[in-house]
From TrEMBL:
Name of the protein: Uncharacterized protein
Regions crossing the membrane: 21-42, 48-66, 78-100, 106-128
Source superkingdom: Bacteria
Keyword terms: Membrane, Transmembrane, Transmembrane helix
Amino acid sequence: MTALANALKLHPRMIYFADAAACLILGAVLAAAAAPLTALLAWPLPNALLIASGLILLPWAAFNLLTARARQLTPAMLAIHVAGDALWGIGSVALAAIHAGQMSELGLFLLLAQALAVAGMLALKLAFARPFLTIA
């Protein structure tokens, strides 16, 4: 195990369980409450984008759960996690940069905070990958 895993006393797969739970909760909230969130955050884009984002997070949560329950992490699974998390984070920062002048401070803060959370989750996935990874 890595020094980080030892220090946190966590099994490498726990990060995937945590990501699955976070994606399930955020996905459900975005899909179910897109209209009020759009108003609260002064989101300049259609509600449909928040709904779609929420619906995308639900299978992502399932993939995280599948990864957490897998016997070993394969290089392909890790590559999918890296690509998915990186694209989500980059997309969030791009949306914030493009629409910063139109969004409320709360909306901008939450968008950037979740981008930071995704980056942190990706960093943990990479830090915990070695003991969980199998090269076939």
